[in-house]
Specification:
heterodimer; A: alpha/beta; 2 domains; nine-stranded mixed beta sheet; 6 helices; 11 strands; B: alpha+beta; Butyryl-CoA Dehydrogenase, subunit A, domain 2; Butyryl-CoA Dehydrogenase, subunit A, domain 3; four-stranded mixed beta sheet; four-stranded antiparallel beta sheet; 12 helices; 8 strands
Chain lengths: ~250, ~400
């Protein structure tokens, strides 16, 4: 099976975000970046499927600047066979244009399965998997928390409101991965050294003009300091009064 | 397996300070080495740091599950060639592992550290092809461990004259005596015994190294009780009572065992230096964060006081100096140009500056530094080992002074 894994380089979850002077983008200086956490599940699942079948390829693709080579190398170190960087200097925030560029590239390579994270933790748009599947004409299963493959059929489990849904599908398919699907592996030294010899190709991303425009970005308001109303049982009436009259949550 | 943090850290919270050590390493090592360091650091953060306090309070050694996880990550096989099932790395990779894991716990880091630098290394350097084939693949996976039988109840710095003896009896060697302070004894499959074989030989030509299986008849292991440093690391004493092994157990050459021991320790000293710097790196981050958070007098952090700043600055200087020096020594080691004096000097300096500065760092933090969960007391205790382990600093100065006294 030829598997394509779509990844994204995102600001690290513990980094401090500052809004750039234009008020519409983030200031990249001083921000550390990492592989989108949900994409780690997608990569791990791709590697496991290849290991289970004992054949096939795992190709990782991303759209971005040359800085994303670091994240691509990391995926090669963990076991991907090939990485492709679709280059652009633009800040890509529109799920539809990302999907268009990825679909155009995926159509040019052998691919029966696309795996991606359920969403990127920077923009949280949650659009790519379905949009990509529609453009490719593939089956689409999103937010998969358990995935099994037997006799060419995937059985996927998804957490839906108050229940778990089980669906099956065949390839070609786009499957987006939820936390809990697997425990991603670490890169070991041998993998890191082997990654250097694996192909990391670059091509210009064919991005259509974005259908969306970001008008402004603002940080959430700073949280006010906490208030200590007293200690022990004696403080309970004051706490209830504050929750009812000030916070208005009771 | 990797624990992926999603939404664990508040994105808009006050900045957590990046590790100072990371900023220095970036300029000292190449991208590939840095990627390896990053992977081991992430592993340490996710798989070791959250459990340390529990292991300490329960007085546990490194759990088998953790050893297995480190084995899966390849940490036990770092500088072992790929043809022998290892990772095909070098000594620098071992030192980077010491820096990454030692940041949380020297005791955990020394487990693969000693397994490699004291266990697998002498086999790599002096083993016959048959010995290497028999042991290196299992050692590389962490499924088997060799321990280094050098120290004895009555022999530490005077290691050239062991009291453990091996006497030839027909085609066999008969080993008697006791080794102690053997790191990783709890998990050992074999012990490399440094034994007196030629009492009348020249100094340094009296001993032979023998590979003895721990399950051999007459071998008894006991964990040394009451140790308050490197608490999660196993330290054992091993008794030999008429233990018989053949000539195929000899590691290196007969009566040249001291050379095996001395050559092995050279690389091990760089690893000990890495542990000292790892503790210093942790203490620097902990202290500088605390100094900005601890508010005293006029609602201001204590980090504004120059005496506090002095300690933090001195730690920062010692860390950058030590890392730069250690990486230089690693480069020389890879080129086979590192002298015994150089290895000794970097170990002496890193261990004493780190442990001296830890005392001051704890003084800056005050009462909170007395508690295990703050972490400094763990590194304070463990740094003592770096002063006396793999050659005590006092004894190593004898070595360092030699070229200074030559005519």
């Amino acid at each position: 099976m030829d598997i394509v894994v779509c990844i994204k380089r995102v600001p690290a979850t513990d980094t401090t975000i500052k809004i750039a002077a234009d008020g519409k983008s983030i200031e990249p200086a001083g921000v550390s970046f990492e592989l989108n956490a949900y994409d780690e599940f997608a990569l791990e699942q791709a590697l496991r499927i290849k290991e289970q079948l004992g054949s096939g390829t795992v190709t990782v693709v991303t759209i971005g600047s040359k800085d994303a080579q670091k994240e691509l190398r990391d995926t090669l170190a963990r076991g991907a066979d090939k990485a492709v960087l679709l280059t652009t200097d633009q800040w890509v925030f529109d799920g539809a244009s990302t999907a268009a560029a990825l679909a155009a590239w995926i159509k040019s390579v052998p691919c029966n399965l696309v795996l991606c994270g359920r969403q990127a933790v920077d923009s949280d748009n949650n659009q790519l998997p379905a949009n990509l599947a529609a453009r490719l004409g593939f089956a689409c299963v999103t937010e998969v928390a358990k995935l099994e493959l037997a006799d060419g059929t995937f059985t996927a489990e998804r957490d839906i409101e108050g229940a778990r849904e089980v669906v099956t599908c065949k390839t070609p398919a786009v499957i987006s991965c939820q936390k809990g699907l697997n425990e991603p592996r670490y890169a070991n030294l041998k993998g890191i050294m082997a990654a250097k010899k694996k192909p990391l190709e670059e091509a210009a991303a064919s991005l259509p003009a974005p259908a969306l425009e970001i008008v402004s970005l603002t940080l959430p308001p700073a949280r006010a300091a906490g208030k200590i109303l007293g200690t022990g049982v004696d403080a309970v009436p004051a706490l209830i009064a504050a929750l009812r009259d000030e916070a208005k949550v009771l | 397996m990797r624990s992926v943090a999603i939404g664990a850290a508040p994105r808009y919270a006050a900045p957590t300070m990046a590790r100072r050590i990371d900023t220095y390493l970036k300029d000292l090592i190449g991208d590939e080495k840095l990627a390896f360091y990053d992977a081991v650091r992430d592993f340490g953060d996710a798989e070791i740091a959250p459990h340390l306090l529990h292991w300490e309070r329960e007085h546990q050694l490194v759990p088998d599950s953790c050893i297995q996880a480190m084995g899966e990550l390849g940490l036990f096989g770092l500088p072992i060639a790929e043809e022998h099932g290892g990772q095909g790395g070098d000594h620098t990779d071992l030192v980077l592992m010491g820096l990454a894991i030692g940041y949380h716990s020297q005791a955990v880091a020394i487990t693969p550290g000693a397994a490699i630098s004291l266990g697998a290394k002498p086999l790599q350097l002096f083993g016959t092809p048959a010995q290497k084939k028999a042991h290196l693949p299992a050692l590389a996976r962490g499924e088997r461990m060799f321990v280094f039988g050098l120290s004895e109840p009555g022999r530490g710095s005077d290691a050239a004259n062991p009291q453990v003896t091996a006497v030839r009896k027909g085609s066999k060697w008969v080993v008697n005596g006791e080794k102690c302070w053997s790191t990783n004894a709890r998990w050992a499959s074999h012990v490399v015994v440094h034994a007196l074989t030629n009492p009348s030989g020249a100094n340094g030509k009296r001993s032979t190294c023998l590979i003895v299986p721990m399950d051999q008849k007459g071998v008894f292991y006991q964990e040394m009780q009451g140790k308050k440093v490197w608490e999660q690391s196993s330290t054992g004493s091993i008794m030999f009572e008429n233990v018989e092994v053949g000539d195929d157990a000899i590691l290196g050459t007969e009566n040249d065992g001291f050379k095996v021991m001395v050559t092995t320790l050279n690389g091990g000293r760089l690893f000990i230096a890495s542990l000292a710097l790892a503790s210093l790196a942790f203490a620097l981050d902990k202290t500088r964060v605390y100094a900005e958070e601890r508010i005293q007098f006029d609602d201001q952090p204590i980090g504004r006081f120059q005496r506090v700043q002095d300690v933090i600055v001195d730690m920062d200087i010692a860390l950058e100096r030590g890392l730069t020096w250690l990486m230089h020594c690693c480069r020389l080691y890879e080129q086979d140009k590192l002298s015994r004096e150089q290895a000794a000097k970097v170990k002496v300096d890193c261990s004493r500056s780190a442990s001296d500065l830890l005392t001051l760092a704890m003084e800056v933090c005050g009462g909170v530094a007395c508690f295990d969960e703050f972490g400094l007391i763990r590194h304070f205790n463990d740094l003592f080992v770096t002063r006396v382990g793999e050659g005590s600093n006092f004894a190593l100065k004898d070595l360092i002074v030699r070229p200074l006294r030559k005519n």
